[in-house]
């Protein structure tokens, strides 16, 4: 029989939750903030965005859950759950409203100072994503997004500014959120503006190269300015299985997985893998690299791999490759149950992915997104009984514990999102992830009042016992 120490997570394990500025903050044009690419999205990043903000039209990100004005209340609730870390992003256009500005916006800088101070007051380590689907809209419109090499300069200026400002407060950083989603949601991941009739893989891989260089330069700056900090890359890495044991399905699923792992290979190993040459040749891709680019990538790899995991899917050879914010969308697995939004629940897949990634890289992992979107019901007495969320949390955390026993080095776990926020994929409020309910509907109606769900108290117990209660 296992003793209690076998059930506990490692000493110093980071427990918390994760949000993104564009899905929570609101205040889209307050205190000098410029518009970002999320501010012209109405139905989620998987649907076309407007070129500009249309007067009188409802944009969910404009108010979101008003975290910008209510963060003290929300951080206090996270503190009550016992978080010792909290992941959020800095909205680039709060700091540089257009992205290419020469000087930063002081009011934007001050907001994050105040936010990090509030987190530190409750003993929470800030875990900060530098670019989380929030590229300034001006950089999309004027430069075409990350397909333009000029963004490297703008991004490094932004990074240097925030590293210097928050060097005493933030010790965990990540450069680009889910960078491998360049293939499935390139507007969100790389703010890419496509030209009519072009081979879309050309700007996707060219933009990816610019982002690799920018990320490595950010690692260099971070290590110089904050020597005791860790700076990682971040990918969407929900599992992909072959649909059958037919060799074509097995190898097809392997190749599809490698399309994502290409991004972590470059970030963590510091060089372009040999297999990319054939992919580029067969798809007529010609990535322009300037002298010194590959050396920068080699010298400054990421310190750790942060990743999101929500579900698994299966791949059949020859099928069209689609994807959304939860990862690749393939064929249904008959052995798994699905959420109301069709995401298959696969806790064992999380252990599988943790082992897959650690075997490949031998660098620390950080599970920075894992969660369940559900249509929660508020009972007449105001309670919200979300046992399905508790079951999802328990089953996935048990597999994380098994992965740690397998020898995987895992820094921590941040549930997505600990409070209801605007869905990135669908822009809904109805698709709720939180342990904390926010009174707001898909049309933007509601009081924004916060309420604790049953899962709030359960996650609190998990953290209190360092996982022993699971």
User: Which CATH architecture is right?
Assistant: Alpha-Beta Barrel
Helix content: 25-40%
Radius of gyration: 21 Å
Number of strands: 14
Q: Write the CATH homologous superfamily.
A: Glycosidases
**C-alpha end-to-end distance:** 15 Å
Named CATH topology: TIM Barrel
- The ordered string of helix (H) and strand (E) elements is HEHHHEHHEHHEHHEEHHHEEEEHEHEEEH
Kindly provide the name of the CATH class: Alpha Beta
Question: What is the strand arrangement across the widest sheet?
Answer: 1-2-3-4-5-7-11-12
Which shape, going by the Cα principal axes? globular
Features:
8-stranded parallel barrel; single chain; 14% strand; 470 residues; 6-phospho-beta-glucosidase; beta-glucosidase activity; 16 helices; alpha/beta; two-stranded parallel sheet; TIM Barrel; 39% helix; GH_1_N_CS
Give a brief rundown of this model.
The chain is an alpha/beta fold. The protein has 16 helices and 14 strands.
């Amino acid at each position: 029989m296992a003793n209690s120490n076998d059930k506990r997570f490692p000493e110093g394990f980071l427990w918390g939750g994760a949000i993104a500025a564009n899905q929570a903050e609101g205040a889209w044009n307050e205190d000098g903030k410029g518009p970002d690419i999320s501010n012209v999205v109405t139905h989620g990043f998987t649907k076309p965005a407007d070129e500009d903000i249309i007067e009188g039209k409802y944009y969910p990100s404009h108010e979101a859950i008003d975290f910008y004005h209510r963060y003290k209340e929300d951080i206090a609730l996270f503190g009550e759950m016992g978080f010792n870390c909290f992941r959020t992003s800095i909205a680039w256009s709060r700091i540089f409203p257009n992205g290419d500005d020469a000087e930063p916006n002081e009011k934007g800088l001050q907001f994050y100072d105040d936010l990090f101070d509030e987190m530190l007051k409750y003993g929470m380590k800030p875990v900060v994503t530098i670019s989380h689907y929030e590229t300034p809209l001006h950089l999309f419109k004027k430069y075409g997004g990350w397909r333009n090499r000029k963004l490297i300069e703008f991004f490094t200026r932004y990074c240097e500014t925030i590293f210097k400002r928050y060097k005493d407060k933030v010790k965990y950083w990540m450069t680009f959120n889910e960078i491998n989603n360049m293939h499935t949601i390139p507007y969100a991941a790389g703010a890419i503006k496509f030209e009519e009739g072009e081979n879309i893989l050309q700007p996707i891989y060219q933009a990816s190269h610019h982002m690799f260089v920018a990320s490595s330069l950010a690692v260099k700056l971070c290590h110089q300015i904050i020597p005791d900090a860790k700076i990682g890359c971040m990918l969407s890495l929900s599992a992909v299985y072959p649909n059958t044991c037919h060799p074509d399905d097995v190898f097809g699923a392997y190749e599809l997985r490698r399309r994502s792992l290409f991004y972590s290979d470059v970030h963590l190993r510091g060089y372009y893998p040999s297999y990319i040459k054939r992919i580029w040749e067969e798809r007529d891709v010609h990535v322009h690299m300037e002298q010194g680019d590959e050396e920068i990538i080699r010298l400054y790899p990421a310190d750790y791999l942060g990743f999101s995991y929500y579900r698994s899917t299966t791949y059949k050879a020859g099928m069209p490759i689609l994807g959304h914010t939860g990862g690749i969308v393939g064929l249904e697995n008959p052995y798994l149950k699905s959420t109301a939004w069709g995401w298959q629940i696969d806790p064992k897949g999380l252990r599988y992915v943790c082992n897959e990634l650690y075997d490949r890289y031998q660098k620390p992992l950080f599970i920075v997104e894992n969660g369940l979107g559900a249509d929660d019901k508020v009972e007449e007495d105001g309670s919200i009984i979300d046992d399905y969320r508790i079951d999802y949390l328990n089953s996935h955390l048990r597999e994380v514990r098994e992965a740690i026993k397998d020898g995987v080095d895992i820094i921590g776990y941040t549930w997505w999102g600990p409070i209801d926020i605007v869905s990135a994929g669908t822009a809904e409020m109805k698709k709720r992830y939180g342990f904390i309910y926010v009174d707001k509907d898909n049309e933007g109606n509601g009081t924004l009042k916060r309420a604790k769900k049953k899962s709030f108290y359960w996650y609190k117990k998990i953290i209190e016992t360092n996982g022993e209660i699971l």
